[in-house]
């Protein structure tokens, strides 16, 4: 099978329209146009074209229980066995992220688990898989930033602030109605309240009120699904860093707002800080490692460049494309 020809990088206006949706997944065209200096019609047509072409989608992520934790898996695989193992992992609902390194012999994945329990995948299934030559499973101790927090750096600070709703600090527990509404919005966070009402059986007035309250209290967690390469970010990399324990929180907090960072976790293991980055090219990755990380005084770093993102929230698992010289 031939390699897929890369899709072109989007123009500045389209990138700004996508960045606006990252601030508020249910943003109106009128408000976006007011802040971005565009007509509401231009914004609406731009979003409509981007979504119709499959360039981006806005989804709603389900609420996650505090009782659920996560493991970062690094799995070394025998040659020729990679595709079968990634397909098996991708079929599991408890594994939302799967990446394959450019070297083609390592899988990096996230697995949901219950902290303090003997995880069956780690203790039984992976050790019994003959295709696996070695693996590590590090527990995520603290989340500094994740994919829903990432913002493409094409808006000004003022524009981003104007487009980002102010959340209420009030904590509310979700009930069955809230969960049904969130589920109805899962595949398309921008559908009309009338459509949600038809899907859930709740009155439209109730749905409108509940959506507003869910958004206001931060329980309606929207996420823009877009290939970072379409945004000009060609390099996807994971950087595993060793930080002195007394510096871990300060370093994590400092990096959480970095425009390249779309995932940042304190973990167990020899490398206690895991950083996922999107950058324009290898020169920008080098600058991130030597200047941004170097300036924070980290003790060491290991970098893995991702060759293929197999599975991520909102994107169906994709088979790895063979190189032109490889058999179909």
TrEMBL record:
Pfam families membership: AsnC_trans_reg, HTH_AsnC-type
Keywords: DNA-binding, Transcription, Transcription regulation
Keyword Transcription regulation: yes
SUPFAM superfamilies on file: Dimeric alpha+beta barrel, Winged helix' DNA-binding domain
HTH asnC-type domain location: 175-234
Identification of the protein by name: Lrp/AsnC family transcriptional regulator
